[in-house]
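Bumping with the actual sequence this time:
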Amino acid sequence: MQLGMIGLGRMGGNMTKRLEERGHDMKTYDPGVSSTAATLEELRDQLAAPRSFWLMVPAGKVTEDTFQTLLGLAEAGDVIVDGGNSNFRDSQRRYGAAKEHGIKFVDAGVSGGVWGLANGYCLMVGGDDDAVAQVEAVLVDLAPEDGYAHVGASGAGHFVKMVHNGIEYGLMQAYAEGFEVMKQSEFGLDLHEIAGIWRYGSVVRSWLLELLHAAFETEGSQLEQIRGFVEDSGEGRWTIAEAIAEDVPVPVITAALFARFASRQDESFAAKVNAALRNQFGGHAVLAEKQAQ
């Protein structure tokens, strides 16, 4: 089928390649990368009606601005797919705005990272049946076998992807903590070797563990060149906020998000407060910064 891909970064670029390899007619727009179109208007004119547009741009203002521009360019019967990590509430709102123009809207949670080109992308899709059906040919070819599902109504795709990423935070943090315990132990353990054997038969084996093994292989068992600064892109926060609204306890995901916050501090002020209090009530020594150096 014919598809207009908007955004040719690490994800959008590889998704375009995967679809081209499978015979789809891809038209593209990205102001920073060589594309078939120089503007969104030109991209629209390169597509035959009813058109299918796929947004693969950063969540937030960029997505909102691009969506609003497309609303003014697209025609009734066209479909807009948001494949970024948008908040599902924003997707529900955009669905409503598109519907007022007679335009279809699909929210597609996409997982697979830089490996998706070769392995395929797991796709969690929300929207009306007819809208999803209009782009199903590309959904099937983007995903590996059994890796795509129409999970529900508008917003459901991005909701499921949000929870997916919250779970991912917890899994990553559990591996991080476990390997640090082993690193600090008295045994001089070969962490690369352990990550390797855990890939086979272990109950904690996973793709994330395979990636950690690969990281030890390329970066060294001490990860000497890796800075321990971990960002978050929002989905963990949104998952926790929804859990609070639903009265659902999510202590693991919450702790994992807070651990990411802590990773960005050169020195924790909270730790300084703790040290000062211990000194005040118990006379415990306080290590001054100049002593620490």
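The tokens above came from a reply further down the thread. The two ends are 63 Å apart (CA to CA).
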